[in-house]
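Budget justification, computational time. The allocation requested in the original proposal was used primarily to generate structure tokens for proteins on the priority list. As evidence of use, we reproduce two of the resulting records. The first is shown immediately below.
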Amino acid sequence: MLSSLLRMSSFWRASLLASVVLVAACGGSEKVESDAPVGKAADVKASTGEPAEALTESGVPSSFVKEVTERFKSVKPELAIVSVEKTGVEGMYQVTFDKAGSIYALGNGDHFIAGDLMRIENSKFVDVKSESLKEPRMKALASIPRDEMIIFSPVGEVKASISVFTDVDCGYCRKLHNEVAQLNEMGVEVRYLAYPRAGIGSGSYKKIASAWCADDPNEAIAKLKNGESIPIAVCDNNPVAQQYELGGRIGVTGTPAIFLETGKLLPGYLPADRLAQELGI
């Protein structure tokens, strides 16, 4: 746990090393404009009659959203901000990027922390980021129709389910798939979503999309997981790109990415017995 307090993702480490000069040039408190959404306006201040600062739907000052959006664009134009949320620490906001995780921004957006924000609660360390993402992750996963997933269900009672973003060219994904039958025997339903790490249009994309488009998707993806080949036939209405984009928005950076029904993310492979413990069965 203590090591996680000090960890910085490889993405942000690389970004910082590549951009140190530009970051130094981003200091100051000058007012900048941005195309970030402004959100709703607050009521007029009763004491002065002046309008209160406009807030976003999540209660973050719109001026801060503009500042942080413009500052990050000046350093990494390819970074797309998905959301800016409160953290419970005054003056600190969680900024989530598409396919690049989250950071914590302070001040006018000119300072940020790339790592884990923890709080102490009931004699435990609580990961603030993971806690804040649980509910939106649950909603996002619940919005996916079952017929757009490849599902391996138990024969009997379903005691729990996991949603797994997977890649057919991932060794640990294949290792997890080898334990799907064992998970089914325990009453765990495994719901696959596509996350071709090489990106849309890649060879991995064509293979996994072909599995989704197959007459028997379960058989097709099982063959790919076993290192066998299937006919490449990418249909127009496959959901792979949509699921890949969703994965990036809810924190998937590698595979397998296992989500519990609570919205908790378990990044990476876990053996079936460990998963059962996490699920409480």
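The second record produced under the same allocation is shown here.
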Amino acid sequence: MTKNLHLMGLLAAAWAVHPCALAAEFNCLIEPRKVVELRSPSTGVVDRVDAERGQLVRAGQVLVSLDSGLERAALDIARHRATMEGAIKTGESRLAFASQKFQRRDELLSQKYVSQQDHDESRTEMRLAQSELLDARDNRRLAELEVRRNEEQIRLRAIRSPVTGVVVERNVHVGELADPGEQRKPLLRIAEISTLYVEAVLPAEAYAHVRVGQQGQVRAELPVKVNAAATVRVVDKVLDAASGTFGVRLELPNAQAEIPAGIACRVDLPDVPASPARREQRRFDPSKG
């Protein structure tokens, strides 16, 4: 406790003499929020590719289409089966006839005009007719489910982007065989850059001064000039004992995709004091005057 107070006193004194000495600025790297590898969910021949490297794409946009001729033919067959009425109509007619026959046999049995065996046979025929009608209706229901299955298969032949971002790699061409195997290269790689992650490494002594929700200023000069506000979203709970550092992630809005990912930057965290070594480096850095 006394040591911490002493350190805080030294920092306060340094700030009074050299206000810029406490301006905490740290190295960082601007990265995509996520990079998605787009693969085919099924095997098929590529029929169309609507994406090029560097192209901006939106979530849900069809980027690769596989040939679906066979699946569409199967869908037409399933739809026809789902609308067939013959088997159900036949079952209903047979059940009506068997029910009437059993009713007559039941009346004749009460008058001793038919044998018990004839009566039992007519009842069995009626029950068989009921089962046949139920079977026809079940087949109709299965045909309707087959339609849904074929529609889903056709939907999977259109490979869509799961995110809004930019295509960073294309490994597919029309006529090639798309394979869902993990050993093959992904068809496309898409980086989501509408929100960027700023990854920074801070000294351990700054840990107590960093919190989620804190604001920072991200700056870069090359390849584009960046001067934008970012928000701390992650503060690592495990520090690296060997280097005496910990990681911090900030979120940087990039709705217009004006800031490219993969560039080095500097992040200023106003509430975080710089380490003594960093203050000395900044004090005698010729570029800082």
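A brief technical remark on that second record: The chain has five helices and twelve strands.
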